[in-house]
Amino acid sequence: MEGKINIKNILLYSIIALAAAGSVLVMLSTIFGLIFRFFIKVMEIDPNVLIQQQQLIEVASHVIALGIYFIVYKLIFRKDNKIQDEGVKVKKMGLCAMMGIGVSGISLLWIMLSHHIPMLQESGSMLEQSSKNMALGNPILVILLTAVFAPVIEEILFRGIIFRSLEKIRSGLFPVIVSAILFGLCHMIFVQMVYAFGMGIVTALVYQKTRNLIYPMMIHMANNLLSALMDIVPISGFEGAVNILSIVMIIPTVYFLHRMMKKKEIETTVEYVK
Questions:
Q1: What does the DSSP 8-state code read for residue 249?
Q2: Do 36 and 50 meet the contact criterion of CB atoms below 8 Å apart?
Q3: Which of 46, 54, 109, 196 stands 20 to 30 A from 14 (CA)?
Q4: How many whole angstroms from its chain centre is CA 157?
């Protein structure tokens, strides 16, 4: 990374990173509330009807949030036109999908361990109830929200805006670790915070090496898709089979991540705000 950093830039990009992380806690709920109020006040639709269509409003909220974050991302880093990525490779997309399954296996082991730690049992129960609530409703919309919109929005936010802002302050592991910490904290439930931090580390390392958000998005999508399917597929034995698969995939995930880390990082040139 080239260019000198000064106190002004440190403050600027620290504020951007923290504000972006904080926004995820209020953005979707604010947009949802505005849409809900618009239909009640302007369109004069019965609130009971809107409650029945809550998932569709959630989809609309995610679409708007995605547009906002994408525009903000492009505006903040519009001057970084010399950053190069390696393009999208089908083979690497497949490897990232596999790594997403392995990350899910690591999360599963942590959740199983947390069940045996008394102080974490309440947190684990909250996570379980949250997963059940999320799975209610139309299965297609559940998958769309959890395995498509959520990963895309969160990767643009955490590996795009936040990671690259932190990278302006200091290169190396600093943006990887700090962006992963912020990613974990934003999940609120402690048990979930821990495995979200782990996934944040993996996705940040992959982005750092490839400079392409598609790859961390693929890891995130695969991980969330497995979680969503286990909650909505009623087939007996399905959850157990998925759990075994995810645990088995931990070893190849670690192997391929290690191989990726050994490769030379794509050269980047970042222009700093003066």
A1: T
A2: yes
A3: 196
A4: 8
- Return the percent helix, strand and coil in the chain, to nearest 5: 75, 0, 25
Whole-structure pTM value: 0.89
Residue 116 to residue 114: CA distance in whole angstroms: 5
Integer Cα distance of 162 and 177 in angstroms: 11
Angle in degrees, CA 183, 8, 172, rounded to 5: 45
DSSP state of 85: -
- CA distance linking residue 207 with residue 109, whole number of Å: 25
Residue 180: burial class (beta carbons within 10 Å; 0-12, 13-18, 19+): buried
CA gap 131, 151 in Å, rounded: 16
Query: What whole-number distance in Å separates Cα of residue 199 and Cα of residue 219?
Result: 9
pLDDT, tens only, 135-150: 778 899 999 999 999 9
Rounded to an integer, what distance in angstroms lies between the CA atom of residue 128 and that of residue 124? 6
Q: How far is the C-alpha of 166 from the C-alpha of 159, rounded, in Å?
A: 10
Amino acid code (one letter) for 268: T
pLDDT tens digits, 154-168: 999 999 999 999 999
